[in-house]
C-alpha cells in the first residue's frame, strides 16, 4: 500500500491509465491491510487502551519505513514475541480476548452478506470515506479557484481539518478508554457513539 501510494505522483504525470491502475492496486492492498491491522490491535491492545492507541496508527510516505520495522519486530500474538517480558505477556493474554484460530470449516458467506450489522458497518464506512475523500479533494480546489488563496494559505488552511482529526482521534480515543474502563458505557455503545461523532 505504501509503495503504491508513493508511486502516485510519479505515474500521474505519465499516464491516466497507469494512475488508475496504481490507485486500484492501492485499494486492493489496503483492503487486505485493514483486517490484519485490526486483528493485531485485538491481540496487542487491551480493550480499555485501544481508543487512544489507534489515534497514533496512520501515516503516509513514512509508512514504507514503518512497514520494514513492522516486519522485523511485530508478531501475530504476544506469546510469539521473544522480546517482551513474561509479566507483559501474562498481562496481554489476560486482558486481550482469545483470538480464534483458523478453522477448516466453511465461511458463512450467506450469513455475512445478509447480516444487518455487517451492512450497517459497510454503510457507515462508505459514508466516512466519501466524506473524507470529498473533503480531501475538494477543499484545496475550492480555496484556490473560488477563494483565490495563494499556495501557502491554501496548504495551511487545507491541513487544519486533518490536524483537527488527528487531535480528535487522540481525545476521543482517550474518552472512549475512560468510558470503557469505568464501565460507564458498554463496548458496543462506545463504538456506536464514537462512530456517530466521527461521521
TrEMBL record:
Q: Where in the cell is it found?
A: Membrane
| GO annotation (BP), single | monoatomic anion transport
The record's Gene3D superfamilies line, in alphabetical order, gives: MFS general substrate transporter like domains
Keyword Lyase carried by entry = no
SUPFAM superfamilies, A to Z? MFS general substrate transporter
Q: Which GO terms describe its cellular component?
A: membrane
**Residue ranges of the TM segments:** 12-34, 54-75, 116-136, 156-175
The question of whether Transmembrane helix is a record keyword is answered with yes
Membrane-protein topology: Multi-pass membrane protein
| GO MF annotations, alphabetized | transmembrane transporter activity
Cross-referenced InterPro entries, in alphabetical order? MFS, MFS_Na/Anion_cotransporter, MFS_trans_sf
Which keywords are on file for this protein? Membrane, Transmembrane, Transmembrane helix
How is this protein named in the record? Sialin
Tell me the lineage of the source organism: Eukaryota, Metazoa, Spiralia, Lophotrochozoa, Platyhelminthes
Amino acid at each position: 500500500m505504501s509503495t503504491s501510494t508513493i508511486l502516485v505522483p510519479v505515474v500521474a504525470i505519465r499516464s491516466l491509465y497507469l494512475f488508475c491502475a496504481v490507485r486500484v492496486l492501492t485499494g486492493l492492498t489496503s483492503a487486505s491491510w485493514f483486517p490484519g491491522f485490526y486483528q493485531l490491535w485485538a491481540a496487542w491492545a487491551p480493550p480499555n487502551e485501544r481508543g487512544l492507541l489507534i489515534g497514533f496508527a496512520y501515516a503516509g510516505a513514512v509508512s514504507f519505513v514503518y512497514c520494514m520495522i513492522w516486519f522485523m519486530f511485530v508478531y501475530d500474538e504476544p506469546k510469539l514475541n521473544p522480546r517482551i517480558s513474561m509479566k507483559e505477556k501474562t498481562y496481554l493474554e489476560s486482558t486481550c480476548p482469545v483470538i480464534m484460530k483458523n478453522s477448516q470449516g466453511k465461511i458463512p458467506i450467506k450469513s455475512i452478506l445478509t447480516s444487518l450489522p455487517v451492512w450497517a458497518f459497510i454503510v457507515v464506512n462508505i459514508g466516512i470515506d466519501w466524506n473524507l475523500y470529498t473533503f480531501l479533494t475538494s477543499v484545496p480546489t475550492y480555496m484556490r479557484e473560488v477563494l483565490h488563496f495563494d499556495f501557502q494559505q491554501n496548504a495551511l488552511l487545507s491541513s487544519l481539518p486533518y490536524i483537527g482529526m488527528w487531535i480528535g482521534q487522540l481525545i476521543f480515543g482517550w474518552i472512549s478508554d475512560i468510558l470503557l474502563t469505568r464501565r460507564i458505557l458498554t463496548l458496543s455503545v462506545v463504538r456506536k457513539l464514537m462512530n456517530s461523532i466521527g461521521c
